[in-house]
Structures are given as C-alpha cells and as structure tokens.
C-alpha cells in the first residue's frame, strides 16, 4: 500500500511536470535556472510594443539582449546583493506602491470599465413604474414603498393588467399618465446613483419585467421593450424653418420643400443654412449642430440623424415640435475599440458610486474565501471603557494593558482588541474628524469596520503574486532590475568614475576619437535695448575699435547698461549665426534678434582654432561613457565564459511568426 501510494504521487508529479513543460516550455537556462516562454513573451511584447512582430530577426536580437541581462542578474545573485537590507527595503517600497492600486484596479476598476464598455454596445428601450422613496427614508417608510412595488409586480405577474395601464394607474412618475411609463432608449453609463437600475436593464431580455429595483430616488419596476446595437454618435448640420404664431406648419412645409429642391439641384447646404435657416445658434456656422448620441434631441430629430447612411448625405424634410428640418450628416462615430473607450470610461467609473459598491463586494468576497469571523461584542465592551471626549482627541493612546480577546479572524490569523486599539490610536485624523456627540460605540464600531476592510485588502495584496501572473512578472522585473542596477554600479559605473589609471589608459588608447572640430573664438555683442541705440552705429564703431572703447562709447556712467560684451568659443555647427560667417578673423556676423524684439546680438570673429585633440579633462564626460561601455562589454564576455547558457532552439523556432 505504501509503495502504491508513493507510485501514485510520483505519477501525478510527472504528469504535472510534463503538462507544465508542454504549456509553458523552457526557452533558455542560465546556470540551469530556467526562463520560460511565458516570461520571455511577456517582456518581449512589453518592451517592443507595436514592433513585437515575432519575426526571426527580432526574436533573436531580443533573446541575445535578454540572455545578457540574465547573466548580469545571475552575477548579482552570486554577489548576494539580493540579501542586502537596502535591496530588500527598496523592493518592498516598490511592491507597496504597486500593490496599493493593483488589486483595486484589477478586481474593481478594470472589471467595471470592461462592463461599462460592453454595455455601451447596446441601446435598451425601457418603460418603468416608479415608486418614490427618499434615499435616507426611515426603514418603516422604505418598507411601505417596497410593499407598494411588490403589490404592483404581483398584479403584473397575474396577467390581469398591462404594464402601460398599471404605470398610468400607480406610477409616481407624472409623465406615465401620458406615456405609460415609456422612457425610451438608454445606454450605459447611467448617472451616479442608478447603477442598480443599469444592472437590471442589462440583465433582462426583451419583454421581461424586473422585480423592484432600489435607486437613490425610490423603487422601479422596469420592462424591456427592445434591445438594439448602439447607435453611437453622429455629427450633423441642419436647416430649420420654425413653426410659430406667424408661421404655420403648412407655410413652413412650403419653405422647407423649396430649400430641399434647391439642394437637389446642386445648391450648397452650408450657404443655404446661412441664408435661410431660422436656428440663430447654428445658421452662421452653416447649420452645424455638432456631435451627439441618443436622448440628446427629440425622437424625430434623432431618428432622422441616425437614418443617414453616409457622410454628406442629407435627409428629406421632416417635422419636429420646433418646425421643419433638413439634416446633413458630416460624420458618424461608432463605438470605439476598448483601448480608446477606456480612457473616457475609467474616470467616469472612478467618480461613480458603483466603484465603492464594487470595493465592498470585493471585501465581502475576501472574507468569504478566507474564513472571516468577527466578534463585535468584545469591541463593544471595549468601547464602554472609553471616555468620549478623550477618545476623540489627539491625546488618546491605546491602553498599555493588552486586551487579548479576539476581535476578528482572517485566514486563520487572529486580531485582538489590543490590535484594534492600536489601529484606533494610529487613526488620529479620523477620530478628530468625528462628531463629538457621536455615541462611543458607534465611533469605535466605525473604526473597527475600517480596520477589517483594510486588513482584508492588505491580505489580498499579499497574495498578488500567486493570483495574478502579470503582477508576479512585474515584481520579477523590479527584483531583477534592482539587482542589475546594483551589480552594474559596482562592477562598471563606479569603476569607470573612480579608476583614474584605467580611464587615463583608455583615453590614451582612443584619444583620436575625441577631437575638437574647427572653433571660432568670438566677441559676442549684446545690445539690450535696441530702441535706444542705433545698431548700425554700434557695428560701424566695432569695426574700427576694440571692445573697451566700444563699451565706453555706448554705456554712459550711472545709467542703465545698454551694451554687453562676452568672450565665447563656438565649435563648428554649434551656433547658426556664427556658422553663417566665412570664419575669417575680423568678420562680423549678421544680427540675431530675440523673440520679443527687445535685444539684438552679433558676433565678431577674433581667432580661428583648427581641429585638435581634446584633453582628457575636456572630453571627460565622453571618455567616461565610452569607458563604461568598454567595461560592460568586457564584463559580459567574462560572464559568458563563466556561466553556461543553453537555448532550446526548437522552442525558439516555435515562437517565430513567418
């Protein structure tokens, strides 16, 4: 039996190992440390973005870079840089930053954005029966309104009355008397406070009626009349002939028909709109209305706009409550792809009440999956020992006598009343913000529930690597990135800066790579207020006198300095005004005026310096950078000879997209 059990375990292990090898094979190893295909594809795609074409050339080039990266990381591990306190502290800091938003983004925000996007693809026509009830109404009043809604639902289910007739009879929406509760087509996202209604709308099928749905305004029974593909948005211009006291629909019809005839005979829509449209807000713009979606304008106008099938097409004349219209379609904007749409939807989701509701649902899920237990009575007993005035001040401290009664458990870990008290002490800002009249038990219970919520989220954040492969990959990037930085700093960068002998030797061997191009030594003359000095007069004087005499001539004592002179040296190609000269001693450049036109600059060439070698000090920045590259190449060669890298050619071939 024992041997049979061991054999079964080995079989399961082998099957599991073979399945893992098949689904995520090893691409290469460094010192027998495997790099799987999933890791390589993740970092290759992330680094190359749109250029990640999985061509043979691209994959081989990146594989070469990534193996070198892994060699350096291996060296960092061998140096035990990952055991240093500074490394651990830095990595933990990064993890806290990432985890703080990652969980909520993945489990709440991203899912809500995806949900909203999928819902925007459909327009849903609904009717409702409304029962008014204030958001914070007493439970007795809320129950009474809910009972009315349930009575109405039972009457509908019995089949004795139609939805429309019942809406006219009992709905608190006054418009139901006329329209039978019809609200028309809606699309996500509904306004804040109506997420529950939106959920109901998109959960039901055509013809179905909901149970009572609570919103901030009350209870709703909703009926789905129709579901269609979302209309999106359309960009429109129009010509309007108004109906008013002086002009009947019939007279307006004659006018609009004549304008339609002109359009059919080739007249320009925008010109006709400017001359004849009676919509003062749009006529001067050629009738331009703008971009709009559903429910912006009344139904005839909306239907006519979305009925146009191509840009430039115009409608036949039609009637609205305003008068007669002809519409022209400028463009049609369909539902964008998700990557574009989420940029608009995410800020809306974050501001909407649905976000907080989903966070609460996430916390409830964490509790359910991790054996959450709570003992509120022990916290209530603790609250009775507190002085309200002292507790709600900055002076209050957690009692020194530790109360070790269990307040709640999560994932088999117990949190005591003493832990709760410590949390409350740290929450000084929250305590100070509480109303002084609040009952002690209510104040402590509020803080207790906040602690539970935070503990649940932090627990789940601690499981991110296990539950989210992408987060695990992200943390691996940070771990190895910090190791790479530290190893390269120790072996390459610090050495390049501190090794004066090696730097000098490198410079001596490569000094011909560090040359000055031809340089011009110039006098730069700046006239600070060109309106007070004649520029031509200064230039003429400069041609015959040295700079000291020029300054004496144009700068009066005890007055604002109008003329400044500076010695400068420009390498060829570094100053467009100097470059425009013929680079001869004594030559004067053209003037250069500053963007505000208040000062002008010109240059006089003093001397031309021919091309020459730079000294080490003059070229230090370039030499240090090149020396670092030299040391790094040498380092990689040493690593390649020291560590064994084995690439699985068959696996690499399988990644290539031809």
Word description of this protein:
- The chain has 658 residues and is α+β, with helices and mostly antiparallel strands.
- It has 5 domains: 1-78 and 471-514 and 617-658, Triger factor/SurA peptide-binding fold (Orthogonal Bundle); 122-229, Chitinase A, domain 3, CATH 3.10.50.40; 233-333, Chitinase A, domain 3 (Roll); 370-461, no CATH class; 515-613, no CATH class.
- 53% of the residues lie in helices and 17% in strands.
- Strand 12 (406-410) and strand 13 (413-416) form a beta hairpin.
- The longest helix is centred in the first third of the chain and has 36 residues, at 85-120.
- It is extended, with a radius of gyration of 39 Å.
- The protein starts with a helix and ends with a helix.
Secondary structure layout plus pairing:
Layout: H1 2-23, E1 26-30, E2 33-36, H2 37-48, H3 56-78, H4 85-120, E3 122-132, H5 139-158, H6 163-170, H7 176-179, E4 182-186, H8 195-203, E5 213-214, E6 218-229, E7 233-242, H9 249-264, H10 269-276, H11 280-283, E8 288-292, H12 299-307, E9 318-319, E10 323-333, H13 338-351, H14 353-369, E11 373-374, H15 376-383, H16 388-391, E12 406-410, E13 413-416, H17 417-426, H18 428-433, H19 440-461, H20 464-467, H21 469-498, H22 500-510, E14 515-516, E15 519-527, H23 535-544, H24 547-554, E16 563-571, H25 576-579, E17 592-593, E18 600-609, E19 612-613, H26 620-642, E20 645-647, H27 649-655
Antiparallel strand pairs: 1-2, 1-20, 3-4, 3-6, 5-6, 7-8, 7-10, 9-10, 11-12, 12-13, 14-19, 15-16, 15-18, 17-18
């Amino acid at each position: 039996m024992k041997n049979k059990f061991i054999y079964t375990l080995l079989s399961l292990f082998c099957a599991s190992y073979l399945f893992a090898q098949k689904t995520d094979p090893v691409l290469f190893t460094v010192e027998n440390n495997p790099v799987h295909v999933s890791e390589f594809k993740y970092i290759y795609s992330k680094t190359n973005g749109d250029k990640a074409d999985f061509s043979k050339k691209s994959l081989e080039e990146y594989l070469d870079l990534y193996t070198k990266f892994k060699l350096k990381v291996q060296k960092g591990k061998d140096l035990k840089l990952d055991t240093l306190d500074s490394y651990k502290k830095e990595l933990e800091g990064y993890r806290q930053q990432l985890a703080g938003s990652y969980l909520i983004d993945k489990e709440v925000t991203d899912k809500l954005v995806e949900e909203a996007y999928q819902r925007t693809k459909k327009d849903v026509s609904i009717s409702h029966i409304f029962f008014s009830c204030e958001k914070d109404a007493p439970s007795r009043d809320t129950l009474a309104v809910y009972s009315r809604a349930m009575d109405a639902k039972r009457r509908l289910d019995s089949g004795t009355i139609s939805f429309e007739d019942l809406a006219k009879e009992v709905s608190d929406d006054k418009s139901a008397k006329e329209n039978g509760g019809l609200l028309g087509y809606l699309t996500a996202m509904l306004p804040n406070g109506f997420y529950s209604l939106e959920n109901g709308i998109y959960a039901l099928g055509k013809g179905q009626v909901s149970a009572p749905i609570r919103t901030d305004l009350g209870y709703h029974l909703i009926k789905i009349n129709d579901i269609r593909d979302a209309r999106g948005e359309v960009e429109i211009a129009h010509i309007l002939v108004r109906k008013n006291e002086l002009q009947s629909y019939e007279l307006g019809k004659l006018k609009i028909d004549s304008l339609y005839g002109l359009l059919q005979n080739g007249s320009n829509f925008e010109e006709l709109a400017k001359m004849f449209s009676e919509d003062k807000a749009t006529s001067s713009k050629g009738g331009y209305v703008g971009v709009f979606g559903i429910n912006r304008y009344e139904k005839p106008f909306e239907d006519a706009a979305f009925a146009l099938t191509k840009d430039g097409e115009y409608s036949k004349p039609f009637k609205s409550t305003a008068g007669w219209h002809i519409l022209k379609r400028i463009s049609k904007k369909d539902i964008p792809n998700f990557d574009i749409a989420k940029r608009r939807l995410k800020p809306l989701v974050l501001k909407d009440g649905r976000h907080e509701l989903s966070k609460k649902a996430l916390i409830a899920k964490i509790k359910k999956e991790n054996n959450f237990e709570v003992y509120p009575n022990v916290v209530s007993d603790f609250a009775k020992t507190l002085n309200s005035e002292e507790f709600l001040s900055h002076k209050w401290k957690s009692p020194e006598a530790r109360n070790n009664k269990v307040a709640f458990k999560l994932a088999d870990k117990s949190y005591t009343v003493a832990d709760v008290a410590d949390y409350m002490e740290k929450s000084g800002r929250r305590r100070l913000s509480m109303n002084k009249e609040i009952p002690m038990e209510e104040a402590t219970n509020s803080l207790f529930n906040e602690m539970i919520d935070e503990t649940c989220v932090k627990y789940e954040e601690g499981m991110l690597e296990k539950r989210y492969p992408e987060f695990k990959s992200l943390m691996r990037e940070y771990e190895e990135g910090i190791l790479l930085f530290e190893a390269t700093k120790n072996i390459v960068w610090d050495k390049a800066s501190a090794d004066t002998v090696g730097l000098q030797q490198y410079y001596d061997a490569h000094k011909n790579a560090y040359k000055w191009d031809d340089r011009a030594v110039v006098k730069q003359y700046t006239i600070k207020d060109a309106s007070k000095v004649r520029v031509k007069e200064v230039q003429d004087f400069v041609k015959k006198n040295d700079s000291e005499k020029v300054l004496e001539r144009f700068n009066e004592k005890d007055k604002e300095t109008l003329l400044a002179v500076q010695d400068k040296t420009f390498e060829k190609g570094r100053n467009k005004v100097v470059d425009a000269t013929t680079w001869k001693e004594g030559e004067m450049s053209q003037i250069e005026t500053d963007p505000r036109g208040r000062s002008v600059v010109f240059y006089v060439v003093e001397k031309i310096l021919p091309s020459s070698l730079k000294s080490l000090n003059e070229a230090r920045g370039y030499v240090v950078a090149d020396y670092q590259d030299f040391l790094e190449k040498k380092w990689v060669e040493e690593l390649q000879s020291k560590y064994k890298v084995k690439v699985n050619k068959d696996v690499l071939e399988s990644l290539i997209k031809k």
